[in-house]
Amino acid sequence: MTRRRRIYEGKAKVLFEGPEPGTLVQYFKDDATAFNNQKKGVITGKGVLNNRISEYLMSRLSEIGVPTHFMRRLNMREQLVREVEIIPIEVVVRNVAAGSLSRRFGIPEGTPLPRSIIEYYYKSDELNDPMVSEEHITAFGWAAPQDLDDMVALSLRVNDYLSGLFLGIGLKLVDFKLEFGRLWENEEMRIVLADEISPDNCRLWDVKTNEKLDKDRFRQDLGRVEEAYQEVARRLGILPEGGPSDVKGPKTIQ
After folding, report:
1. 206 — phi, psi (to 5°)?
2. What's the pLDDT tens digit per position in 222-238?
3. Euclidean distance between CA atoms 77 and 51, whole angstroms
4. I need a surface site. Which of 177, 184, 218, 240 has the fewest CB within 10 A?
5. 3-state secondary structure of 49
6. Ranges for the SAICAR synthetase/ADE2 N-terminal domain (predicted)?
7. Whether residue 93 is found in the same domain as residue 193
8. In which domain, by residue range, is 36 found?
């Protein structure tokens, strides 16, 4: 990893200053957290796999006209991204009942929803990422009404495209989390997809068996976490048989 000035470190990634103004280097860690950082561990090779998976999915989305911060992958664990002003809202798109939705409403996990549901959460570890409404978002100035409209429209496009892409490789896109940022180009501002798209922030189940191939394996102590991430990459066609050399290693450490 090239040593540059560290801009920000989160639970799963580190951002460094980029080689050109307006760019950042996004480094993917093997660290894993769950339940708002209450559970911590290391998933060996996760950073390598998420870098590749996110590169692939962001590139495919760019091809259908979804604007993203992604520019190119630099190496096994780093990618070059555009510097954006992150909007402090997580947009969650749900297609099938799982996780907190099942707990809140008593809906059995795995129940197909009548339509895709969008939820918003305020990004704050101290407050445990509380669910918020559009009224909260606009009243507190986290995003303007037009920003929110753009975020919803982009989220639905991403959902439509990724649902089909994953279904084609035998995976069900149960739900996923997106983050967005404001990209400034001269005096123009536009909303773009930021952060990452990977098994860290998507629930992915095998279509036939409902086997979980995402971070729920870590959250729920199901085991075979590394193998699940590798299987997603393998189905996407971006993992050579046997996997990259630094994916192999000790099992999950908790």
Report:
1. -65, 135
2. 989 999 999 999 999 99
3. 6
4. 240
5. helix
6. 7-235
7. yes
8. 6-84+225-236
Six-digit token string for 184? 């400034």
Q: Residues 228, 229, 230, 232: is their CA dihedral positive or negative?
A: positive
Helix 145-167 with 46-63: angle, nearest 10 deg = 110
Both 54 and 105 in a single domain?
no
Residue 31 — pLDDT band, cuts 50, 70, 90?
A: confident
Reported pTM: 0.90
Only one residue has tokens 């780093």, namely 78
Q: Are both 94 and 192 inside the same structural domain?
A: yes
In this structure, the answer to whether residues 182 and 116 fall within a common structural domain is yes
The distance of Cα 63 from the centroid of its chain, to the nearest Å, equals 18
The verdict on residue 254 lying in a domain is no
Total residues found in the chain within this entry: 254
Amino acid at 38: Q
Show the tokens assigned to 234: 């393998």
Cα dihedral 203→117→92→72 (10° resolution): 80
Specify if 48 maps to a domain. Answer: yes
Total number of domains in the chain: 2
Provide CB contacts within 8 A for 113, sequence distance 6+: 94, 95, 96, 97
27 and 138 together in one domain: no
Q: Which amino acid is at 197?
A: I
